[in-house]
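Feature request, filed as a ticket because there's no other form

It would be nice if the structure record came with a short human-readable summary line next to the tokens. Right now we just get the raw output. Example of a typical job, pasted below so the devs can see what we mean:
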Amino acid sequence: MDPPALIVKELAEQLIRRQSHINVDDVIQRLFQEVSFDNFPQPPDPQMEDIAVQLWNWAVTKRVGPDISEQQRAKVRHVACKLVYLCGPENPPENSIRKQILMASKTGRTWLDCKRPKLADEFLLLAVKSLESLYSRLLSQGDGASDINVLKADVEKDLLRVLSYQAESAVAQERHQEAVGCMQRCREMLQRLPKETGYLSLMCYNFGVDSYSLRKYEESSFWLSQSYDIGKMNVKYAPGTEVQAKVLRLLATVYVEWDCQQFKEKALSVICLANKECVYPSGLYLKIRILLRSGAPDEQVRAGLTELLESEVTLDMCLSTVRLLMGEDRESVAFDLLKRVCQRFESSPELGSALVLHIELLLQRGKELLGKQKIEDVITGHYTGQPLTPQTLTTLHLLLWDQAFKHFEAKNYSEALQWYDYSLSFYKRGQLDPNLAKLQRNRASCFLNLQQLEKAKEAATEAARCDPNSIFSHFSIYKIAILENNVEKATQAVKEIGLLAQAPVSSEDRVLLKENAAATLLSLAAQMALENEQQETAMKALESLCEHSQDATQVLTALRCLVRLVLSTMDNTTEEKRNDSLDMLLLYLKMAQQKIAKLSPGVERTDAAHWFRRIAWNCALQCESTPIRMKDFFATSYQLSLLCPVDKGVLMAQKTCLLMAAAASLELCRTTPDSPQQPELLAEVLEHVQVCWNVWNTLKTSGDFSKDPTDALLLLYEFEARAKLSDPKLDTVLETVLELETVDVKILETIAALAMEPPAHFPTLCKKALRIALSLHRKQPQADLARCSQCVHSLIELSLPRGVCEVDARVLEEVWGYYEEAQSIINGAPEDFAELEVLWLLTRAWNTGILLYSLAQYPEAEKWCSLGMSFLRHLGGLRESYQRQMSGLYSEVLDRLDKAKRNLVMEE
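Raw output as currently delivered:
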């Protein structure tokens, strides 16, 4: 065997034996690709032909069940059939030809079933050639034997089938003339094969249906005509009159849809022929449709209607005919038919549908008075033996509500109420139905517009009873409560609407409907309350809207309203109420921040963020007396500014917000030193400072800020927070202050004060700051002696020993230096230097001397007492008094000092 043949043999054996490891789809695809007339030259090979037969049989055995798909089966048959033709002898015997015919025709049919007509053509052509070859052989054997004639008839029957397949393939490939040629050959064979009449007729009908679905009306009319004509060739074997009538009805429909004016005569002739073949209501209906489309006079149409009513027509078809007549502006004919239909189906339980249609048509034509009379008759009949079916009753309700709505829109509320009352009359007392609740709500709206408040209340109450879980029912109650100025009832209704909006529902669509409806109703509720000057109720509605709406834009609009409403009430009010209002505003602003964050970047988001951050800023400025509120408002303003596009203005606002928030937190710590929240507040300060540094560093790149005190303020706030937290990093903050381009003495003085402000206690750090501050003061061209004196005062206060245990020579030496600095300041000061400060220096120096005297340190005692005495000359009116008191003690100190010196000499 050649290599291709070996491959095919191996693949076929894998498939036939169904080895467990193989992929059937892959094997079939490889076989399909290997076998073709172009690349598979093969001499006659009985072994290969046997493999082909086995493949064919394998595909047949797999026909039942899901083992292989129709496409796979077609491919296996394709391969098997090709192998039989390729590997068979040049002049195969009759049995082989029959086998080839069977395989080729079935393969072609299978490809047609798989919607692959091009592949089918190849095998159908092979089948035709083989059939013609077999027929020639049979002809050569003569016409004498009866069995030969039977065989010839069988061949002709198979040929007709294959030709019909070729016609089907041509139709599928839109080769109309080729399909016509194949069908013509089939028709010629019907004389000898009359039993195939029904088959061919139905095939042509199917071609006609396919062409009609593609709107190929000319081709469709040809095939449908062929179907009817073939059926007429042999009535005995034709499909039957019902089928023939069906063919003609479709043919008439084709003419109508193709061009009714051009083919109206043909269409009418065909439908009359169809009705003659088999009277069927749809045929009679089609005839009326053709008459109407072709513009036939009323008399001719009425005759067609009479035919329709005399047939076994259904009520639905009669009503469809009425609608058809109305659509073609045959009003009088339509109403006449409707009257006859009501008489014909008088005892039918479905009569109500005809009556409802009559009412509908009257209303469409603007005949309301007649429509009302008809409705009242229907209502009477409904309760006296002619009840409407549920479906018909639903249709009538919709009709009545639609009419009522039109009057309501036209503000004709009395008329609208009458139509709603007609609908109400079909409901039983005490009935529970959501539709009845809706009806009562509509009635309540009419009563409200008619200023009939009590009747509106009754209708709204009834609506709530029928459907207590409807937000619309509670909204009706709300509207009435607003008009009655009943704040409690209105607030309760708003609460119910909010609760129902949160309640779970089963359908996803209903969820969306309920959410949107609740938000819309709450918005309307707020609007109504404001229009009726009920601000408190309006705010409740807006708050509920903010809580339940998923629409960020809608919530932001509501929040703007709430903010404006609260701000409008803050001018003339008590401090307590004002603080409550500020707390409410803070909640609204925080909610706004969350909603704005959900918006996509754009103009809407930017505008909203700017609006609310400015509101937060302004509110913060009104909270000077309450640092905690100021802190929260500035922090919120900063958070909102993060949602704005970054520019210099926004950065400046962020910097200020962070500074003010930190300052407010520190003020809160100062006013509530024992609060357990101190650590948390101080941590917030450090956080604000850190973020502010980042903002400030970015801002400094955009311009000259040399005169801006932000650096100093941030360092001061950080120092104070860390001092109160006893943070060991405090030294680092002071070093950073000293690294500033310009060190302000006030900052150092403030740092010194903060270092010792409870709970902070950092005396060393405090003295360092004071020494640097004093040095800076002294370097000034015109030193501020008062501030210099204050620095020295603080240094002495911090350094002087406060008891016996603190007396130390090093400390005393340090303090002595500060006193020398103080003397220098006083000597350089004008005569009006603060006498109290001089007196303080005098007293502290003298007391130190006395402390040393008590410790028997007489030389040091004399030194400090002498220092104290030196300040007497700078005293004014107090000099004499203090000099008299100090002189005696100072003499005693000197005596002790002399005695101590003599004792020392005697010892030596």
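Something like this underneath would help us a lot:
The two ends are 143 Å apart (CA to CA).
Residues 505-513 have pLDDT under 50 and may be disordered.
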